[in-house]
Amino acid sequence: MQGTIQLVCNLVASFVGLAYFLWSNTRPLLRELRREPPPHRRLRPSFQSLKVFLRPGLIFFTESAVRNALYLWLVTTIVALGSVYSTAWGVFNTIRWGLVMVPVQALEATALQFIGHNWGEWRRKVGVNMRRPKASWKDILAIVWPALKSLVLAIVFEVPLAIFLTLYGAYSFASYLSGSDEVAEVTAYMWRSLDWCYVFYAMSTQLATILLATRPKWYLYQSLASNLLYVLPWAIACLNVPLGQISPETFPLPQLHAELRKLSDELHTGHGFFVIRGLDVDKYNRQENIIIYVGISSHIAGQRGRQDNKFNGKPADVVLTHVKDLSSGQEKGAIGSPAYTTDKQVFHTDTGDIVSLFCLETTLEGGASRLASTWRVYNEIARTRPDLIHTLSQNWDVEVFTNADKKFATRPLLYHQKATESTPERVALQYARRYFVGFGALPRSHDIPPITEAQAEALDTLHFLGEKLSVSTNFQKGDMQYVNNLAVFHARDGFTDSPTQQRHLLRLWLRDPKNAWETPEALKSRWAELYEGVTAEAEIFPSEPYIRSSSNKAR
User: Fold this and answer.
1) For 101, which DSSP code?
2) What range(s) does the TauD/TfdA-like domain occupy (predicted)?
3) For the whole prediction, is pTM greater than 0.70?
4) Across the chain, how many H-helices and E-strands are there?
């Protein structure tokens, strides 16, 4: 459609210019021929004549080839960002071609005909054999006058249009064309980033007609420079893709994708955990390891959860965190979670559907990761202490570390989900001992009602049965562990580091919308804090360890 519009506009402009040229030149020429008939000559096409036209044609061919090569580079990098960005780019092009470039180029083609005519008429007047003719300011103004008029027209129409699209039109138009709010937001952002560029494009295009009609070689240099200045920043910026854009489309694994999707099925309908082993982390730097980890994880569960809403004191969607002993640093007195110490972590769950850990470095001694099946522990409690099933299924006062205005929330720890036509019967567990007893610099708040004896006994039972029925996965460097956080709860043995060998894990909280378990009603608000509103542009992947706000007394 864009090509058809441009072709029609260019043809109309060309034929109008040609008609004007014939009309303005034919009558004077006929009058001159009547007064003095020329000698009889037969005009024939010749190779020599072709070479006359070939020279300027090669100039335009070179300019077009370079411009399109740069453009293809740009398009390739944008398409690599995924379907949202590639669709947004298509919609953006519809806007820029239909509302800006086609009208501007049609205006350019029209102005070019008149400038070419004025230039040819002036050259004929001063003599075509004069190598370096000199023109007066009056002559120059007469030659370039059509370009100046088209420049004014371009400014009058394109500047208000650019402002309108920036403030109102781009998002609405993109939403109408794509039917997607996400695509519309990206398209509007593209336009807001480049609106000034198209105003200058409209202006420079009209002025460039002067060079195109009079000095084609100079036009080539001008065009190459303007295209480099326009396309190169785009393409270079696209090469520096934010990590939030990592997805199966931008991190393709054609040989592994199907297997990784099967592993997602294993998380949700199988054993509930697995370990990917074999990556040599020493081959890559920290940033590259993060990219590899996030890229592989995107094939297993594409939605990343927000683990912190602040980074360096500013609002952010921190989706990757580090699990490392920071107790020897300056922040020792602020640590409110065993994740940042060498202490043993008792059995607990994290938040979200899937918790994943990537081992960058192992410990010198200890630190085994322990996993226990919620179903198996549930069955054992139901067999030996059914009263505690009732206790775990009742409401508990759970401390909230993520919201300073909300001291605690009330919800059960254990959730039973009945079988449906598409899902089996399930039991989900969501708890951590520090919600009820505190840890380190964040002791239990005095604002929370005390737990009952039955609740204390239930917590101990979960932990000791977890230890009894657990399996151990001793991390090796490069291991990526994925755990269904609703079906499996986990713990960590205490460990010892050395100055040269310090346990260091990366963590993601993930969700696979296709396979995800139904979120219990009491957990939906917490899940919303994790997964809703996380945008690719705002995602933060810290390369160095720090204490999360919810585990930091100094937050």
Assistant:
1) I
2) 242-509
3) no
4) 15, 21
